Design the sequence.
């Protein structure tokens, strides 16, 4: 019987659409809203859950498949106890990874359905139940990339975005933070408390979140009528409030640069995330050690806030295009520090990240969009972050500052609360710049590596000239503009050279061999063979 169910499940999934990242998209449904009711306890790590899911039928179907991890060999995982379809008992089957729900009739296009799933279990992952550095018990949802389905029935992929409510029942000593606005906080019997947060803007499951812990909470201020809050462990109250208040500055900068902040509030939360920071929509989680009282978290905070626009609001439709999230947040952080500390700081950032990229390429000679990656955690790499940022930096220099900003704004507005791929960003940039950027994006996203250049000089004394030869040593030729700072007895000047052949030669007036410094303004990702 189990084998028949497994084969049927494979058939259903195979009938869905698969993208390059291997996740089988359910073309027949669109989740509109999740309501997750969870009961937490201090006596056990077991969680009792109730998921109310409203979905829309996109194509005629007689079943619905959700991601939900079953019980593993260690006894961790979720056990489904009941499924209701339109308040009637439904037939369902649970496998190790999926929950299959049979419809009593074929749902037609544009129908809406309501599912209620009752379940319980000890999360193997996705909800971190532990103690913070002060010894206090804490609960933190930690979903990125696809870990929510360890305890939440959902479509655990960023292509599907939905509104979400979290209704958390926990011991009264806990405060609870989550996405959206606080709707209710009520004391219950047996020293328990109910907290209800509501997010009406559709977001991917990867950035849906809640945290339950002992918290000190401070109102840091507002930006464009959006309240900004700091949630820190009470033992870190003064240091945390001081460190997290800096969030107002990058938030204001991004609102001016890109567009309106997408959510109704921003909470910056000290937490037990496994990452340095996790960009949950409207409720960013930072590692507990991000609080020092020394104001050292500014770049981390700026990075995670940038994700509210790119990653959360405009979300990659396929995991292999995660640079649209991480590369954007990395470069926007550099733009923010450029605005506060000057162009020299940007040049220093890009120079440092270029060194990281070149070292990384020697160990992992793969393109930025690498469809061979199957472990999603491997996407958190120098390619997605630093190389993604470098692509944006070179694009800015390719199209000019004005067109670059206009293109970013157009891309944001066009795909707000939706999904996009790299091609969508390319088209937005082409639209505002009037340039064909197909080769630019192809070579930097889909070709492994970067130009490796050898530069030689030869004086032609009879003519009073110096010949400069620029050779591309890598197999796949790139096309780019290379700036050369030329220093000789007559002074110094910058020459711009269009390079697209294996060997490019230019001549410059100089009777003596000049000093030639490639890329003096740090505008090209390349390797110099010396």
Sequence:
């Amino acid at each position: 019987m189990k084998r028949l169910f497994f084969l049927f499940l494979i058939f259903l999934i195979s009938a869905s659409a698969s993208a390059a990242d291997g996740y089988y998209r359910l073309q027949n449904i669109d989740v509109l809203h999740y309501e997750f009711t969870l009961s937490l306890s201090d006596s056990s790590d077991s969680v009792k859950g109730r998921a109310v899911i409203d979905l829309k039928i996109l194509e005629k179907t007689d079943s619905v498949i959700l991601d939900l991890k079953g019980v593993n060999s260690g006894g961790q995982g979720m056990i489904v106890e009941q499924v209701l379809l339109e308040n009637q008992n439904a037939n369902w089957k649970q496998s190790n990874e999926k929950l299959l729900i049979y419809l009593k009739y074929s749902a037609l296009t544009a129908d809406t359905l309501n599912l209620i799933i009752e379940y319980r279990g000890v999360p193997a992952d996705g909800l971190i139940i532990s103690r913070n550095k002060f010894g206090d018990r804490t609960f933190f949802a930690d979903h990125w990339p696809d870990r929510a389905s360890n305890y939440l029935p959902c479509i655990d992929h960023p292509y599907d975005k939905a509104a979400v409510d979290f209704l958390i029942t926990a011991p009264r000593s806990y405060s609870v933070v989550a996405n959206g606005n606080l709707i209710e906080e009520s004391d219950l019997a047996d020293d328990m408390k109910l907290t209800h947060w509501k997010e009406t803007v559709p977001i991917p499951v990867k950035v849906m979140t809640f945290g339950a812990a002992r918290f000190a909470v401070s109102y840091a201020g507002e930006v464009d009528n959006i309240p900004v809050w700091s949630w820190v462990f009470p033992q870190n109250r003064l240091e945390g409030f001081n460190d997290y208040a800096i969030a107002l500055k990058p938030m204001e900068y991004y609102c001016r640069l890109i567009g309106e902040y997408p959510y109704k509030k921003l909470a910056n939360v000290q937490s037990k995330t496994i990452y340095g920071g996790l960009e949950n929509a409207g409720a960013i989680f930072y590692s507990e050690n991000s609080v020092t009282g020394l104001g050292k978290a500014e770049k981390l905070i700026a990075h995670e806030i940038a994700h509210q626009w790119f990653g959360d609001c405009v979300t990659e439709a396929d995991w292999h295009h995660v640079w649209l999230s991480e590369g954007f947040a990395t470069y926007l952080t550099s733009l923010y520090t450029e605005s506060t500390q000057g162009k020299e700081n940007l040049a220093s950032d890009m120079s440092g990240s270029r060194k990281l990229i070149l070292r990384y390429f020697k160990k992992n000679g793969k393109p930025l969009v690498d469809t061979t990656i199957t472990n999603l955690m491997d996407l958190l790499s120098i390619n997605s972050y630093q190389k993604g940022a470098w692509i944006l930096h070179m694009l800015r220099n390719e199209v000019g500052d004005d067109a670059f900003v206009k293109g970013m704004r157009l891309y944001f507005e066009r795909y707000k609360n939706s999904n996009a791929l790299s091609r969508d960003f390319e088209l937005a940039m082409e639209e505002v710049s009037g340039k064909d950027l197909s080769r630019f994006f192809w070579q930097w996203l889909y070709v492994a590596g970067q130009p490796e250049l050898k530069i030689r000089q030869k004086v032609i004394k009879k003519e009073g000239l110096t010949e400069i030869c620029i050779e591309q040593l890598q197999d796949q030729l790139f096309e780019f503009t290379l700036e050369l700072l030329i220093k000789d007895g007559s002074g110094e000047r910058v020459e711009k050279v269009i390079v697209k052949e294996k060997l490019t030669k230019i001549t410059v007036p100089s009777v003596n061999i000049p000093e030639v410094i490639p890329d003096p303004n740090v505008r090209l990702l390349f390797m110099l063979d010396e």
Summary: The radius of gyration is 26 Å. Confidence is low (pLDDT under 50) at residues 1-15. The CA atoms of residues 163 and 200 lie 5 Å apart. The longest strand covers residues 192-204.
